[in-house]
Amino acid sequence: MNQKSTGRIAMSGISFTSRCALAAGLVVCSCVGAQAQEAFKTFKQLDSTAKMPKLNAFSVPLQPNAPANGAKMVSLEARLTGDSPAMQQGLSWRVFSPFAGGDGKLPMVASAEGGSADFELAPGDYFVNVTFGRAGTTKRLTIPASGEAEKQVLVLDAGGIELNAVSGADSRIPAKDLRFKIYAAETREDGERGMIMDDVKPGTIVRLNAGSYHIVSEYGDINAVVRADIKVEAGKLTEATMQHRAAQIDLKLVSEEGGEAVADTAWSVLTSGGDIVEESVSAFPIMILAEGEYTAIARNRDKIYQRDFTVTAGQSSDVELLMKDQKPTDAFAEGMD
Questions:
Q1: Model's pTM, two decimal places?
Q2: CATH code at 329?
Q3: Domain finish residue from 244, 266, 292
């Protein structure tokens, strides 16, 4: 059955929602067990290659593997959690020899894609790695010289997360203007977080090992950025919607109200403190800006025009600079000051 767990966090400028509701705070809507697997099938999957977990945590056997003429069949299956059913698709299996090759890497001796897998392996020791998106686990496997090889069950301890965002209270942000970055929750010695995945599109399910992750949501490419820590639970699909306090602004230099934008215009947008936020050379620049006070400066034919304006979250607007209403500043003279 579907399980909903709800909670709230105090975090300025950020809120979460699930598909069940759009509200401030954190509302988690999770699919559990077999339903989580079905949810992974339903939505767009992210099938990029995952980094293999480190294999150097295991001890290396003293003797090499036995000859292949005594090969035995071994069956492998993976589960999201210890008590969930076996995964039926989306898995990548890799079997490695524990002895490094000439390049210093462990050679791969077998592989498979899909659900459960059967491998014919010679007696000896191996490392078996299974990945499900960006989630994965590795287990040491021993094929006995006598008797049958036991079936192996690997527990991924994995779940999924689907990200989206709104601007203001509930204005859905176009997918083309939105992207996410997923980082490890812990910071390294250099103070940075390890990047797990970049340029994640909204509505994409990312499959991850259970744990907390630091999510960065970028609306546009200027200054509309929000961050949050989100927990992924094993066997569950978590849907989170982050809230941006930003809006799209269209700038125009016009000779009359509602007129055509004047060509060959260079633009600068400054914060209320005078810091440059963005610059553009376009008759009709479109910018996505965080909520706040700004000054637009237009340069055309060696003249400068400017206007203060306010960005309100979720409210797209046109900002027109009327040439006839302003006394332009001579750009050359200003540059000499």
A1: 0.75
A2: 2.60.40.1120
A3: 244
